[in-house]
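ok trying this again, last paste got cut off
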Amino acid sequence: MAFSVSGGTVFTILLISRLLESSMLNAEVKEGEILPPTIQRLMKGYNKYLRPFFDNGPVTVGMSLDIASIDTISEINMDYTATIFLRQRWTDERLVFEGNKSLSLDGRLVELLWVPDTFIVDSKKSFLHDITVENRLIRIFPNGTVLYALRITTTVACNMDLTKYPMDKQTCTLQLESWGYNINDVMFYWTRGNESVSGLDTLQLAQYTVEDHYTSVSEAVYETGNYPKLVFHFELKRSILYFILETYVPSSLLVVLSWVSFWISLSSVPARICIGVTTVLTMTTLMMGARTSLPNANCFIKAIDVYLGICFSFIFGALIEYAVAHFCTLTHPDAHIYMYGHHMHDFDDEKNGMVHTISSHSNRAKRRKEADTTPNAASASLELTVSTSSPSGIEPNPEASPPEPTHWCITVLTTIRKVLRAIYCCHVENPHHIDNYSRVTFPLSFVMVNLLYWTYYLYF
């Protein structure tokens, strides 16, 4: 019973295989009947698994590119996405035919011919357009030259140096290599040199302009051998106008806004604190927004980070300036005069006559008291002098005087004296002068730093 079941299964498999073979044969016959006589003669005895000139040296493949569009250039992913038309030309002696006209074939007939195994080296993701059919072109010329064109959209890696962002220039490449055929089998070349790539002159990009592009021919060296490689280089320059309006101008205006506090009285604590804290928080928000579109994985210190850091330092410095000025005002011996002296000027004119009268009477009374107390003071000083001397009128013995201080005591006293002298040099006579100096030093310093910043990043 088991034998009969296994025999029936084998018979069913054989029957299905026969049916599939017959259907494939019928499809080949129908395909052969559709092909014109010229193509039938060319395909007779043609082996697509063998390259042209299999025993007579390498086959040369010429390439050209047409850049249809560059959709996105991502600094976060370090890549760009482009749609290109890749054209390849080579000569196959097996496809020579008589006539003076080329044969344009359907793209689906490419399965019958040998084609180069070209691939894009740094491609992350690529696909061939297939609407409404696969975007392929096959054209055969009488001398055996084959033109093979493809429409491809690819995402290619591009290593970017963002140290001068957003005043940077990036050089990206598009590399074409042969996957399986080394330089002994296939040779690549650009059909028209640097003019083999077209479409960049009319290309419109969002943040970049194409400054230059050129081509080169090289070899890729791997463990399995040397392979032909074609490289297309193009230089991109970032447009800085957007970043000037979006980041540089707002951050500079915030710095200028923080200087408004220098013209506000030191007694207006809420007003000055409000300006300082508001500008600091706004600058922090601006710095965080500028970093959202940039990669965080790398350790680049970008030019825009340097400028935002400079602006933040000036804003924070303005806030610290008020803290120092206010502290000096509170610790000054005449703090009440500096803080509230402007309220007392209104009463000076009304009290001038009364003050002069009182002062004259007080001076007369003072003179009388001094005249009465002068003899008593003289006698008291004499008694004090006599009492401080010894009973016998002889000076005290120098051996009874206290010992001289040691060397370390002198060193400590000298250090303390130097520290006190330094503190006295930093003493502020009038705290209002701090604001007067800041009104000049802060703007001049900011202008000088800007000149150094733009000179370095634009010309070096």
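PB: full thing came through this time. The domain at 38-239 is CATH 2.70.170.10 (Acetylcholine Binding Protein; Chain: A,).
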